[in-house]
Amino acid sequence: MAWRNMQIKSVFWMLGWLCGLTLLGGCARHSSAGHKTGPRVVSTVPAATQILLQIGAAKTIVGVSPWDKPLLPQSMRNLPVVGNYLHLDEELVLQLAPTALLLQESPDRIPGGIVAMARNNGIHIVNVHLTTFHQLYRTTMVLGKISGFEKRAGIKIQALKAQLERLAAGRPQKPPRVVYIIAVNPVRVVGADNFMDEEVTLAGGVNVAQRCGEGFPVITRETLVQLDPQVLLIAAPGQPAVTGPGDPRVASWFTLPIAAAYSRHIDLITWRRAQMLTLQVGSIIKRLRKIIEYSGFDRSVLK
Amino acid sequence: MKMITTGRFQTIMVSAIAVTVLVFMLCLAIGPGAPGSRAIAIGFPPSDILQLRLTRVGAAAIAGAALGLAGVLLQGLLRNPLADPFVLGISSGSTVGVMAWIVFGEALSESCSGHPWLEELLANGQAIPALAGAGAATWLVFLLGRRRGGMLDPMTLILSGVVISTIGGALVMLLNNLVPYGARADILDYMFGYISEGTSHTLVWLALLAFLAAWAGALTLGGAMNIASLSDAEAHSLGIKLSSLRFSSFALAALATAASITVAGPIGFVGLISPHVCRGLFGPDHRQLLITSPLSAAIFLMLSDTFVRSTGAWFNGELPVGVITALCGGPFFLYLLTRRRTWM
Fold it and tell me: Do B35 and A212 touch (CB under 8 A)?
């Protein structure tokens, strides 16, 4: 009997704790939502969040996705997380009272509930597409408009266009054949018609994997051997830099019969933002150019 | 049950091995055309490319054979025609392992620096975490599936497998939310199975050894499995120790599945359909099935993988092999089902 009473008590204790935690969570949530005037943006697209930061609209951001967190400046890491494009916390979004909600989804796949919520609460849904440089310019202008930094966005775009023109003018006469791998198992490469393809071209290489398909096609190592790149770039965002041909992350690529292996021109691209199209694309291309032009393990050129 | 003669048994065995070797050679000779072309190249390539194909076709053969073997063992053990290596939550366990690797792998790699053999193992990417996840799921199902007295109960095993699968699915979703930005494509590709030319030769040899050990063990169980397909009481009265037979079947199926996951990830349908196809073609004798099912599954997976390897240009990039095994295997299985005979 005593045992049974103890069990009942512990169940009540647990329920009490759960209720308390829920109330605390609710209070914390509520307090995070101050009602201010002016543009208020909830972004679920890390690249778009970065663009907002780059045009100086940091103060307009009121909610982000979990993927944004590691990319945000320290002072903004306590921003509420509203979920991602798959699961949006609509209740939290409403509490944040945004004027704009940034999503990245094909138009017919935006859930009807989100569209209705936005319509009923005067939230402007901005469906961001960032796959080409042209889309970057357009998106930046849209983000400038919704955040009240339109003029600044225009200036930034002009500066970027000028930087890219300079980079294009400095392309080598005989650009090397480049393959840029973004995932290794299976081997997924940068194909045709996307911003990373444009980056490789402007960085002074020829993306030979263009022939394998649009976007980011999966290829076999056999196809990689046939492409015979002179430079092989492998994305490894956030990882430490490559230490040499014996580094286990690149060692297997050096066994392939390709020009890049013979000339030791295989390198890891470890910058976190390397696969993200933002207004910093110019500096990414500059770093890529240094890697493409010089030997993969001569790290001094990157300093 | 119609018993086979030694002559017929030998004919079937020799023919099956011959066809498997022929298909192996054929798959080595087929590959993608020049990059950008939609053509399929037929003919033996230069030695460096042949080396790559050899690893991949070999891995496909081992993975397929292992799945075919595990399928026969589990369908016999569970007395369930729908049993396959992944009904016991093994696939789900391997996916959890890979997800955990994607989320925590970087930190783990850093903590293992200074131990060269451990570093090399971890550099093989998803294979080791997949194996660890599959092993953990198998062990859990085994613990849950035991009745008092230590005997494995087929019904409890299936139910435990379903529950472990569900929990694994939930863990995958939980870890999915922690996956770093940009790593999402990896897991989607993994979940459909993928055979890579880049698989380390050490892993391929390990998988081959594991499969051969499981196969050798399984071949000694054929006669007992035939009798165990009767009721428990009949099997007991004919002198079969069901508890040890079930334990052996389970352990060998787990070993074979581990061999497959090591080199190919979770590939569905192969382990389910190959025993049925072989039952339809050669009869229900487990002594035959334990030879023909692994070989037919190896043939099926080698051909499926050769198709995806050679047709990347048709689909804007290489398809996961699991897509083809399901698209070809599913309708074929349904066709067999409509012509259902006594073998079901």
Answer: yes
